[in-house]
Amino acid sequence: MIMALLMGEFTGEEVLTQCLTLGPYLLGLGLGSAVGDRIRDELRLARLFLIEWLSVLILPLIPLLQLLVIFLFLNLAPTLYNFDSPESVRLLLSMTAVLSFITGLLGGAQLPLIIKSGRNLRPEIILAVNYLGPLFAGLTIAFLSSRALDFGVQIYFIGLVQLLGLFFLLFKLPERKLAMISLAVPLAILFAAGSLYPILENYTVKSAYMSTRLNGLDPRPLFRVLDRYGILQRLRTSYQTIDLFMEPGEPQFGVPGNATLYLNRKPQFDLYSVDVYHETMIDGAFNLLGKTPERILILGAGDGLLLNELRRYPEVKEIIMVELDEKVLEWAAQNTIISKLNEGSLTNVPENAKVLVQDGVSYLRNNTEKFDLILVDFPFPNGQELAKLYSLEFYELVKKSLTKDGLTVIDLPLYLDESKELSRESRTILKTMDAAGFKNRLLMGPNASFVALKTGGKKLEFDYGNLREDLTLSAAFNLVAPFSAREFTKKDKVNTMFWPRGL
Known about the structure:
alpha/beta; 4-stranded antiparallel sheet; 19 helices; 14% strand
């Protein structure tokens, strides 16, 4: 489960990582059991101790090895292999499958030896305990994950549980003193792995964001750059991973510093694009509506920046902001950089606004009110769990909550493929919107991309003579439509919650 979580975080392929960890693990269990069954009775306790000792030695190292492979891939792979390309993802997931198989092999080899050692117990009792063990482990990992604990802490916990089992085996062995001494090795490995994990994680994540490469055989210059350049702040919650990467400026050349916010490793904005992103979304929406909306619903946007931008318009009667992740709200209110950008909008919420901690889909499903404008600022759909936020059912719920002439503006990833056309994923989302009844669409923003949606009415077009006078130049340049509103074909599919299309 830890291997699946770790690799899913880096690749975004949550379903594939689950399949390619659990499947090989179960295969390893079966083959390991066949191997363990062939061990002679007089050797079973010694072999059981050895296999458990190897498990305690190897298992804590596997997440560390996964990170190391990702780090080496980022810095050594040929430039034609993009980290997020399908070929790269397949290679990394294949490595995970091999490690999962080894894990299963070590676990499976123990079961026949335990059964033979417990001859005074009924086999069904031993099997019941054997199946209850993974249930306990699964619930434990789920609990640890829900507390958003780092993988390094989880490694400590799992390793100590393994060590506890190894300790109990000591009382069955004739050579207890030697066996006791041998516990020092896996114990040292465990604490070394747990201590090294956050360091290697920091190097790997920074390396991904900085696009570093290893030149020559000496790695010291690379690590000096990773140590000295930039500061990475990482927040892992039950729902997502947020990275704030702060880069130092070069005052001698008049170059200011920068900070970039990443959500699940996807860039959201930096200090130079924060205005173009949020002004495009709000001022573009107001311009398309031709008026100031009375009631606005914000879905997502836990950084508080959209809420702050709407302070320009005190004539808005009501703003409802729905954010799933309470920890993100707390972090955005306390973080020095983000709280400065949102000007304390989350600690001093505007009088006409209300912030709700709730799942956006559930809110829309139970909502009976109508809004003039709905702003959707969700993470990009780089996984099956997030794909539901770009589904037919979700867009139908959005449409249900709009007034007759209401408008929706959605932060939409408009990716181009090798032929410079919209990617299959982007076309799938557009076709899904069309199927939900949003026939009137405007794709806007070559720098920060959005799609504006209406169910009907006059064709959506900007009124450039009615833009806000103090609108930043970058946002004004972004209020253009670089793509056709209909960029899909009959071959493109509709994404639904019941039939996800792999966004």
